[in-house]
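SEQUENCE WITH STRUCTURE:
===
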Amino acid sequence: MDSAGERDEELLSLLDDENVRTILVETREESRSVAALSDRCGADDSTVYRLVDRLEDRDLLVDHQELDPDGHHYKTYSARVERVEVEFTNAGIEVAVDRREPPADRFTRLYEEFTG
């Protein structure tokens, strides 16, 4: 199997995890912390951190730096994935992912279009 096919298989395997699907659904509309995601998944923080790392590596999740009123920093996460399409072909399985544009990138693009 070629590397693209292996990556597709790895992505399908990742999405097969119920906690991964919960993380992606829970972060679709609102950015959430690992603690909040752990509560929603019913999993410990270390499991959620591991899954968050894997999702970030696949560019399916993006982190945001937040500031507590008491001055502490922490991260929240939001989903970048809009849709995953799986196609079965003679060559194997092909997976296509539609991603959301991160808000900062969208703002920059709109600003450049406006001023350009």
